[in-house]
Amino acid sequence: MELIFAAALCSVAVSIVLKICRDKGLLPMQMIAWNYAMASILTYLWFKPDLAHVSAAHTPWWLIILLGILLPAIFFCLSKSLQNAGILKTEIAQRLSVVLSLLAAYFIFNETFNQLKILGIIMGVGAIFCILDSHKRKQAVHGAKPLAAASLLAVWMGYALIDVLLKYTTGLGLQFSVTLNLMFIFAFVISILFIAVKYKSLGTWQNIGAGLLLGILNFANIALYVKAHMLLKDSPAVVFAGMNVLVVMLGVLSGLFIFKEKLKPLVALGIVLGLTSVLCLAFAM
Fold first, then answer.
1. pLDDT tens digits for range 49-81
2. Is the dihedral of CA 149, 157, 15, 211 positive or negative?
3. In terms of DSSP H, where are the helices of 172-235?
4. Residue 215 in contact with residue 83, Cβ under 8 Å?
5. For residues 10 and 251, is the Cβ–Cβ distance under 8 A?
6. Which element (helix H / strand E) includes 283?
């Protein structure tokens, strides 16, 4: 459980660092770009992928390039959501992307569903609607633009899309470490080209430093999560439930105590539904 807790802590720490840095005036896109530089290096050193023998003919470059574009794009949506909706709701939306992933598994990958999975999906969708509706009500009162609801929706759908594409990638027989490393490398290349054109610079030292820190946390989250699955290979539900529940709870605590976010009744209902949904989906696996 120590590994699961550490992985969840790193996951929430990514959001905390991203939100604090943005509030201090740093540029998220520059941080995101250098995050993938560090993540690429650490993936190569830790997982030791055999990049020298990657087959150009049998590697689905279109898929890796697509993921290389999606990863920084969705990371940027995460940054927007943290700014407009807060860390509490963003973490729940990110974790409940599993609901859409499971629906894709049913319709695309022909995965079988039991009653517990169906109940978990219904509760998960209900949780998302509670969180989105809470922002629609707030915007209706204050006349604000619907940026919060839109960014939350982008995080929810975006992370689900990435999850589905990763599942498709592993189904093609690519090694996890090679796939992960190539994705991070392409994400860095795409991001660095974007900021070079937009800002006429590769980033300030502050943005680069913050990005490298994000990369360490981002990679640590993945490495610890994979290690937990390896050590608890006979209990994947424990890893899945532990990770998701801990991330939601840590996200709620950081939102309440670090960023002084308010916990409204509709959001509280969404948290309860979300945690119940994650537990149902875990025990259904």
1. 888 888 777 777 888 899 999 999 999 999 999
2. negative
3. 176-199, 205-231
4. no
5. no
6. helix 265-284
CA distance 72 to 78: 10
Please tell me the distance from the alpha carbon of residue 102 to that of residue 108, in angstroms, as a whole number.
Answer: 10
Number of domains, the chain: 1
Q: 136 and 267 in contact (C-beta within 8 Å)?
A: no
Residue 153 corresponds to which tokens in the numbers above? 């929706």
Structure tokens, 244: 């998701």
User: What tokens does 205 get?
Assistant: 């030292």
Give whole-number Cα distances, 197 to 71, 185, 191, 194, 236, in Å: 19, 19, 10, 5, 43
Residue keyed to tokens 């589905």: 164
Joined together, the tokens standing for residue 30 give 């520059």
Return the half-sphere exposure (C-beta side, CA atoms, 13 A cut-off) of residue 166.
20
Angle ∠(192,208,82) on CA atoms, nearest 5: 85
110 in the Ramachandran plot: left (φ > 0), alpha (ψ -120 to 50) or beta? Answer: left
Which candidate, 203, 206, 199, 218, places its Cα nearest to that of 72? 218
User: Tens of pLDDT along 164-213?
Assistant: 887 777 666 667 788 889 999 999 999 999 999 999 999 999 999 999 99
**264: helix, coil or strand?**
coil
Residue 150: burial class (beta carbons within 10 Å; 0-12, 13-18, 19+): middle
Residue length, the chain?
285
* Structural domain boundaries, residue 165: 2-284
